[in-house]
């Protein structure tokens, strides 16, 4: 490959799939020798070790009495322009069209350099349109004025083209996981510590408990499953739906079988004691959490929406069911959990799928290729 590049990365650094991908990408690019500059409102949460070639530039948003709203977008654009100029950045890779692509376009004008803008769509921009169609033109502008645009699944490319109709080709670049972290580990001690009996199957759900994640469906499906086999449900994460989910757990008399673990790191340890993952969202452009589970050998049941069927292969490493079809979800779960040979096969296939289609080395290589294509001579 060519010369080492100077790359700026902007994302929402808080917990969430897009922040995870942007941070992991920065770390892996740094390991390949590139100089990475995170330009974000707080330090990315997965940036948990020192890298000599990763820099962090904090966007400070001041709240002046004269402004009704704090000017985050302008502050971000100014910081981007400052870093682009001072550090001679060649690439600004932003995650989300709004506001980050728009900020990058403004920053490029302010800096007066030919920094190339790469925008990755994660789906939330498109979802937002369901609430606020007045943003369509802004999203289209962000996409069209970027030098290169990627989306995390074919489904998201299709959805963006349909809803936004940009005059710009969007390339699918799948998400990835760090396979050094996400793999089966020995964490069997957790079973005993959580009070999971040797004959119990473990079902896991991980999300930010937003309404689109339909965590209540997870609980309802588990209620049916646990009527037929001994099982425990691990609910990992926290968010707006937590109160109603807790209420449902109590109403269904499941409190001794559902473990509410809240937000957790080191998820590979929880996946390694799990037999099945449920991802029953009504919107999901990719479903990074399914990929993380699969890498640890956990088959998944997901819903037939967005990018989920591109990650979970029906009848191979898991099952795909319609949103809200609790009956079918429970039936497929029982089918898989009561057939050890099939379960073992799905578990092997899950690990193999991750290696085939979502290896970090290949995906980071795809992003690198895009950067070099935009910078001929580098
Ligand atoms: O799903 C969320 O609530 C978080 C959201 C985000 O912007 O971080 O996740 C989106 O990006 C992830 C990484 O590409 C995808 O795995 C998720 O499927 C996607 N979420 C939605 O499309 C709802």
From TrEMBL:
Which residue intervals define the domain Glycosyltransferase subfamily 4-like N-terminal in the entry?
15-179
Q: Which domain of life is it from?
A: Bacteria
What GO biological process terms does the UniProt entry carry, in alphabetical order?
bacillithiol biosynthetic process
Q: Where is the Glycosyl transferase family domain?
A: 190-350
- InterPro entries linked to this entry: Glyco_trans_1, Glyco_trans_4-like_N, Glycosyltransferase_grp1, Thiol_BshA
A GO molecular function held by the record: glycosyltransferase activity
The record's section on Pfam families has: Glyco_transf_4, Glycos_transf_1
- What's the protein name? N-acetyl-alpha-D-glucosaminyl L-malate synthase
Q: Which organism is it from?
A: Heyndrickxia shackletonii
């Amino acid at each position: 490959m060519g010369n080492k590049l100077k790359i700026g990365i902007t994302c929402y650094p808080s917990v969430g799939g897009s922040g995870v991908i942007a941070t992991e990408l920065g770390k892996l690019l740094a390991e390949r020798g590139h100089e990475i500059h995170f330009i974000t409102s707080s330090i990315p949460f997965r940036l948990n070790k020192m890298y000599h070639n990763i820099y962090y530039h904090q966007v400070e948003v001041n709240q002046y009495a004269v402004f009704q709203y704090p000017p985050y977008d302008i502050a971000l654009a100014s910081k981007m322009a400052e870093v682009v100029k001072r550090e001679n950045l060649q690439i600004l890779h932003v995650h989300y069209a709004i506001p980050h692509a728009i900020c990058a376009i403004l920053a490029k004008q302010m800096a007066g350099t030919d920094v190339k803008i790469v925008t990755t769509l994660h789906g939330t921009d498109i979802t937002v349109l369901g609430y606020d169609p007045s943003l369509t033109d802004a999203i289209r502008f962000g996409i069209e004025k970027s030098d290169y645009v990627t989306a995390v699944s074919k489904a998201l490319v299709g959805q963006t083209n349909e809803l936004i109709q940009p005059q710009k080709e969007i390339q699918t670049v799948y998400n990835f996981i760090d396979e050094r972290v996400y793999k089966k580990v020995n964490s069997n001690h957790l079973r005993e510590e959580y009070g999971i009996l040797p004959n119990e199957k473990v079902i896991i759900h991980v999300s930010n408990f937003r309404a689109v994640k339909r965590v209540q469906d997870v609980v309802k499906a588990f209620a049916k499953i646990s009527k037929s086999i001994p099982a425990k449900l691990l609910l990992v994460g926290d968010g707006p739906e937590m109160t109603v989910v807790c209420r449902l757990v109590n109403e269904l008399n499941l409190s001794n079988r559902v473990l509410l673990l809240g937000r957790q790191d080191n998820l590979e340890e929880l996946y390694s004691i799990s037999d099945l993952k449920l991802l029953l969202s009504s919107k999901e452009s990719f479903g990074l959490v399914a990929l993380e589970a699969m890498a640890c050998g956990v088959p998944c049941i997901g819903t037939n929406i967005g990018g989920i069927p591109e990650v979970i292969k029906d009848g191979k490493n898991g099952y795909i069911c319609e949103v809200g079809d609790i009956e079918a979800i429970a039936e497929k779960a029982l089918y898989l959990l009561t057939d050890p040979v099939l379960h073992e096969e799905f578990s092997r296939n899950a690990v193999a799928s991750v290696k085939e289609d979502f290896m970090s080395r290949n995906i980071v290589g795809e992003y690198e290729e895009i950067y070099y294509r935009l910078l001929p001579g580098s």
